[in-house]
Every structure is written in C-alpha cells, then in structure tokens.
Design goal:
Chain lengths: 223, 160
C-alpha cells in the first residue's frame, strides 16, 4: 500500500480550472471517497448536490463574491487586511492582491469550475456530529480529486452568514428551516490550469505538538 | 437578579458557546439575533437616514438603549452607531471579562435588518463592536451595501 502522505502533502487549493468537463467516473470516485469518511455512530448525515449547470454555478459564484467582498471591504477599511498581507513588500503587487480580496473576486471561481459539489447534512436523523462528519467527507473528496489529477477547493464563505446560507439553499432548492439541513460548504473541482508556484508555508511540527500535556514541547523518552 | 440580568446571563452562556464552537466565524452567523423586535414595528423610510432614525426612535422608546446616535460615511458604506446604557451592556461586559470579544449586538442587527428589508440593500456586515464599561458606551461599526457596486469601495475608517 502506498503512503497517502504524498497525496496529502502535494494537495493544494486550486481555484483556476480549464473548461474541460470532469468525467462521470471521476465524479463517482470523488463521491465514493466522501461516502467512506468517518462518521459518528455511522449516521452518514451527508448529502451531496452535484452541480454542472452554468446558470446555477453563476448564482453560487456571485453569492460567494458578495459574501467575501462584503466582509473583506470592511476589514480593509478597518486596516485588518493590510496587516494580514504585510509580508508582501512590492506595493503594486500588494495593492493588486488586496483589491482581488476586497472586491470578492477571490471567491467568485465557482462560476468557472466545471463541477461544484454542495455538501449538506441532515439535522433530522439524530446525528450529533454533522459538521465534523461533513468536514471529514470534504477532506476525502479533496484528496481523491487531487489523486485523480484534478484541482479542487473547499469553500465555506458563501454559506458562512445566516442570510447567505439561506440564499444558497434557495438556489439549490434545499429546505431552508434551521432544523432541517445544514449547508457547510461546497467544493469546486476541475482540471487545474496551472501549478501553484507558491504553496503556502506550513508551520513546523515543533510549534504545534506537545507531549503528554499542553505546552510541553520536545519528545520525551518513553518505554 | 432582575429579568434583564437573567436574560443577559443566558445570552452570555450562549455566545460563549457559539464562539467556542465556531471561533471568529461565529460573528458571521448572528445577524438575525434581535430582529424580531424591530420587525414587529412598522418602520418606514425611503433613505438610509430615515430608516436608521426611525429604528433608533423605536429602540429608545422601548427603553432598550437610553442614548443613541449614528453616522453614515466612508463612501456611504460605513454605519457607525454609538449607544449609551444599552440593556445588553452587562452582557458585553461579562463576555469581555470571560475572554471573548463581544460580537453580538442585537440593536445593530435590528437596524441592518431594516436596511435590507425596507430599502432592499444587497447585504450588510457588522464589522466591529467596541464597548467601554466605564462610560457605559458601545460603538459599533458596520458595512452597509446598497447594491453590488458598493462592495470594494474602500477607504480608511480610522480617518473619519
């Protein structure tokens, strides 16, 4: 059995796609990967809506753009975005990155993805772990898509606010009652147009791993 | 303990819990908290100023906040509310003492809701809640977007 760590390490969030469709057999494999995610008490609360219709994807892309743009415009006006991107030294580049963010364009890419899969969970069957189960399913989808040579991105922004989540449900005709279904995210998938040249750096394990108790760093001897 | 203390204590527990579950994203989820009061009123107005003024009038008349002022600026997307002696101030103070930055202002939610409901604003976002327990004053800054084109109209709010 191969080491899945190679797949995990080389996966990146991909937001730019070729227009070519994702073959049905690949869609099935991605959904199959989701189906085998861990789930509390085997409830399997997840439901998936596979979206290829351009008009629906346009509506989702617009919703995502408005959601991110409305928050990031405010964050920019408060000075928070500038702080977040202070590592970019080139002022022209920085201005362009910031504009891309606060305009909301950063989140619009569902419009151009050949495939969007909405991940929702039923709240009516007694599961006590819906958000966690759905998150595990999404990670499986991302890894399977990557292993197939596809690019994918997990997008939570457009369903992050209560009003936007309702709009998202209405677009997809999901019942809107707060006790019915939770929309946690969608996953945009397609053939990547390019390799991401600058994968975001990851903190070293030493910074985040404690041994035996919180705050205790350094692997102790253990027999 | 009076009834308001009782309600505020319940809200503190719920807000702590929601923040613990969702971290910063909790603040994006609470936009409907408080709107039932204002939706039960017949708020009228054809402009943001009229709607905000009429909301404030109802809020003060009901005794929810003693003193309240507002300003709209920042290329017409910044709504700043200043409130003194709000019924929910003890909730914010307690939350802050417990280590959670206040993020649920039902009063602000009321006004943002009416901009959407009465003037068909595209969207709004409560961006920043600041409380001063010594003076009993809260300042809340929100972004209000009349239409899609308003998104991305940035400026420096600290200079206003």
């Amino acid at each position: 059995m191969g080491d899945i760590l190679d797949i995990i390490r080389s996966r990146k969030s991909i937001r730019r796609y070729k227009p070519d469709p994702v073959p049905d057999e690949m869609i099935d494999k991605i959904l199959e990967a989701a189906r085998w995610a861990p789930t509390g008490e085997n409830y399997q609360p997840w439901r998936f809506i596979v979206i290829r219709d351009p008009e629906t994807k346009n509506k989702i892309g617009r919703l995502a753009k408005l959601g991110s743009g409305s928050r990031m415009t405010a964050w920019y006006c408060l000075g928070e975005m500038q702080e977040r991107f202070k590592k970019i030294k080139d002022p022209v580049k920085k201005a362009e990155v910031l504009r891309f963010m606060y305009s909301g364009e950063v989140s619009e890419f569902a419009k151009h993805a050949p495939l969007v899969i909405a991940v929702i969970g039923t709240l009516m069957e007694g599961s006590v772990d819906v958000p966690y189960d759905l998150s595990a399913a999404i990670e499986n989808m991302l890894l399977e898509a990557h292993s197939l040579g596809l690019g994918a991105c997990w997008v939570h922004g457009p369903v992050a606010s209560t009003r936007d989540a309702k709009k998202f449900k209405e677009i997809l005709k999901i019942p809107t009652g707060m006790g019915e279904y939770k929309v946690i995210a969608y996953v945009a998938i397609g053939w990547p147009t390019e390799e991401r040249k600058h994968p975001r750096p990851k903190r070293p394990l030493e910074e985040m791993v404690y041994w035996e108790e919180f705050g205790r760093k350094g692997r102790p001897e253990y027999e | 303990m009076n009834k308001m203390e009782y309600c505020n204590d319940i809200m503190v527990r719920l807000e702590e819990l929601l923040f613990h579950e969702l971290s910063g994203c909790a603040a994006w989820k609470i936009e409907l908290v408080g709107i039932d009061f204002i939706q039960s009123k017949e708020i009228k107005g054809n402009t943001p100023d009229e709607v905000v003024r009429n909301c404030i009038q109802e809020i003060k008349a009901a005794g929810l906040v003693k003193e309240m002022t507002y300003s709209i600026g920042g290329r017409d997307i910044k709504l700043e509310l200043t409130m003194k002696d709000c019924l929910h101030l003890p909730k914010e103070v307690k939350l802050k003492r417990n280590g959670v930055k206040p993020y649920v202002c039902p009063i602000t939610n009321m006004i943002l809701d009416q901009l959407i409901e009465k003037l068909n604003f595209e969207t709004t976002y409560m961006a920043d809640v600041n409380i001063d327990e010594k003076t009993g004053e809260c300042k809340v800054r929100s972004a209000i977007y009349e239409d899609e084109d308003k998104i991305g109209l940035v400026c420096d709010w600290s200079e206003e």
